Amino acid sequence: MSGTVTALRNKSVKLRLHVQTRILLFITDLQIGGTPTVVRELAIRLASDPGFHVHVACLDSSGPVMDRLRDRQISVTSLNACCSLDLRVVFRLIRLIHRENIDTVFSFLIHANAVAGVASLLVRNVRFLQSIQTTQHKPRWHWLVQHAVQHAAEKIVVPSKSVADVASRWAGVDGGKIVVIPNAVEIENLTGKTRVGNGKRIGFIGRLDPIKRIEDLVTALSLLPDDYTLDIFGEGRQRIHIESMIARLCLGARAKMHGAISGPAAALQKIDVLVLPSDAEGFGLVLIEAMAAGVPVIGADVSGIRDVIEDGVSGLLVPPRNPNAIANAIQKIHNDESLTQKLIQGGIERVRQSYDWSVWIDSYKKLLRGPG
Fold it and tell me: Is the pTM of this model over 0.85?
């Protein structure tokens, strides 16, 4: 009798394993950033569902997000690409797909999409999904490559209507192939702490890249009274340029660069308003992270950002490349307590209704399980 029970249990385990959807989340790198954060949080949530087996892979050699995934017992593989034209990673990806018995590859960002697109020509019985996360027009060759490889994907996931529009216009993606699933946060991980400040602590959190227009924020600081300060959290190729600009404007006592951070929560406790002055964003994950934490936000009125911020309700929109407008908006929030509270409450409510993981995880699961 006990032998029969054991056999039935073993059969049950085999059946459960058989119906598991085996997912490979594949991304260009696992450095600190919006899309790697989305991949990390998606992997954690899928891994907690017994219906999914999750493996994460990246083209780059390592990164802080990789360590955080491994801390959560999620398997991660680096394909160790030596450059963007290292075609050997295609064969490494194929070997990984076979080794892990992957049935669905979900790639994020252009380099990973391109490698997955080539690999799709050499493997059978594997679904391929892609994600586009940007509205940046340049470099133009990114969109030409995306146009070539998008045919390999069954569906293409984008975080906003703005990205859907540019994917159709610049990469020729058919609208019927696009699925809009906004990026999300765990609101409970960011709320509940009380910040103590004077209302004049300005913050930027993100990659130090020309598209972010951090120089506009530094210039805005120079236009504000001396008791306003700026904290810049992040790392990137513009660091030296920003440091020299701060020195040139004699703002060293008021502007501090903190370098890379492992997550936004601690940084958000140190600021009173978050500003994202970018020329373009696919979504702007840091905006909803700030909203969830009760920090009022200001963003440039550009694609991606305007999808997230409802002007005057959950944040303020300002004309792009306009330091005067940024400075005025910062002072407006500081001087008007009723507006500040309105934006804080509006931001929290917007995240709770539209950008919490609990709202969107089922959409991912349905997509990844596939038809039927």
Answer: yes
